[in-house]
Every structure is written in structure tokens, then in C-alpha cells.
Amino acid sequence: MSEDNSTTTSTGRVAAFFDLDKTLIAKSSTLAFSRPFFDEGLLNRRAVLKSSYAQFLFLISGADRDQMDRMRTYLTAMCAGWDVEQIKSIVGETLHDIVTPLVFAEAADLIAEHTALGHDIVVVSASGEEVVQPIAKALGATHSAATRMCIEDGKYTGELEFYCFGEGKVEAINRLAAEHGYDLEHCHAYSDSSTDLPMLEAVGHPTAVNPDRLLRKSAAAHGWPVLTFTDAVAINSRHLTPGPSTLAAGAAAGVGAVAAGALAYRLLRRRP
Predict the structure, then answer these.
(1) 3-state class (DSSP) for residue 116
(2) Annotated catalytic residue: which of 4, 21, 39, 153?
């Protein structure tokens, strides 16, 4: 960790901002609800086949800004008309038994280190709120920021209220800093993706974790630390299992990102 161990500075508190996928957890959080979403008929076979390749590439090598924008546009439109209460029910019923992601042990240790220093833990992800909030709570995060979809008459409209990606993450971080008095110059940020360069550049102590090629190059140019996380452990093995209130936290919005997991489900099951 960078040299800044104080809980507060002369101007504000210290927070550690974490990307989620491939930074805190060893897989895409969008895969969390693959099986229940598909089984509930929210996605048909045609949608699975049409989008599975793009999602598979993301899991293997990540996605650049243009790919993420194309995926966002397609997925949000596909989710139009989904019933919010149905999504909440699926999330609440399956989170603990099916969704429990694998957390990098090194990430869990880093969270514990920041927490011991009195730093707030903030998960910032382009995935939907319905995924990010429960996982963040399970990881012991203080706050989270995620993508939100618009809702009208109890259904998702297919439009985004807030896209927590790229500069959107900086917007979310600035809002949280204003609300909670974070001194960003003394804060930390961790990510694996070059699409998160704006977030990393927004704080005084950025760190690349399992970086893609472009982020590794940028980290070298800026002299940023680079960490490699490889040891994945189940959440509950670190006593981070979410409680009943977390399981009920459900989806208020942001279903678009979650849907990508269901789109890849059949493809990944059939791989030898």
C-alpha cells in the first residue's frame, strides 16, 4: 500500500476505491445471476447466442470502451419491460446459494488493511446496483456506486439513469467525496482495466491490479504500483457471508449489466 496510513488528513477522510470485476473478485460479477435469469425466462436462447461471444471475450481479456458501449446499448434495450419486483425476488432468493463469488484473498487482505487504518471502503463498478450493493456489503464495504437503470410503472424502461463507467466513476467518486468529506489527494484506487484510468487518476494513490496491457503500460509510465492477485477464495471462507438484510437488498436498477452473465451461460457450460 502507498505511504498514507492516516484515517483523516487536514482536509478530509481517506477512502479506498475498488473496481469489482477482476480486481476484487476472480470472475465477472455479471455472471452472478446467469442461471436464475435464464431459468426464469428473462433471456431467450437467441439472446444468449447473440451476446455470448462478446461476454466471453470480456471474461478472457476484458473489453475496451467501444465494446463496453456497444454491450451497454444492447443490454439495456433488451432489459426493457422487465418487472422490478421479479428481479428483486430472483436476486434475494439466489444470492447466497448461487451467486457467492470468489474473492481474491489478496484483495480481502487489502480491504482488511485499509479498514484497520480507518479508511472507508468503496466499491465502484459498471455492473448493476442489484449485483454491486450486496457484494460490496458482503465484502465489508462502507459504500458502493454502480450503474442504475430507469424505472417506470414498476418496470425497467431500457434507459440508463446513471452509467458508472469511465468518467461516470469519477462523477460517482466526486459525489461520494463531497458527501463524506474524502480528501481525494490522499485516497487510494484499485483497478484492472485501462477504462478505469480516469478513476485512478482522480486519487493520490492509484494502484493497478492484474492490469490489462494498456493499464500496465500507463502504470509503468506514471510509476504506479502494480499488484497481482491470484488466490481466489469463497466469500464465506473469509467470514464475509452477507446477512439477511443484504440478501433482500435486491435490484432497484442496473439490470443491464447483470444480463450479460446470462447471455454467456450456455456457451460457458458447453466448453470442455
Answers:
(1) helix
(2) 21
| Strands ordered across the beta sheet of 155-162 | 155-162, 143-152, 120-128, 15-18, 188-191, 205-209, 226-227
- Is 196 a catalytic site residue? no
C-alpha 111/C-alpha 35 separation (Å) is 29
Which cell numbers in the block locate residue 167?
468518467
User: What type of residue sits at position 122?
Assistant: V
In eight-state DSSP terms, residue 123 is: E
Q: Annotated catalytic residue: which of 4, 19, 39, 66?
A: 19
Cell matching residue 100: 457467492
Report angle CA 268, 270, 272 to the nearest 5 degrees. Answer: 95
Domain 15-270 sits in CATH at 3.40.50.1000
Tens of pLDDT, residue by residue, the chain (272 residues) = 655 556 666 567 999 999 998 899 887 776 667 677 778 887 655 555 555 544 554 555 555 566 666 666 766 777 888 888 888 788 777 766 665 667 899 999 999 999 999 999 999 999 888 878 888 988 899 999 999 999 999 999 988 999 999 999 999 999 999 999 999 999 999 999 999 999 999 999 999 999 999 999 999 999 999 999 999 887 765 555 443 333 333 333 344 444 444 433 333 344 43
CA distance 64 to 243: 35
Q: Cell match 455470448: residue?
A: 52
Residue extents of the structural domains in the chain: 15-270
Could you confirm whether 21 is annotated as catalytic? yes
Is the whole-model pTM more than 0.70?
yes
- How many whole angstroms separate alpha carbon 75 and alpha carbon 170? 23
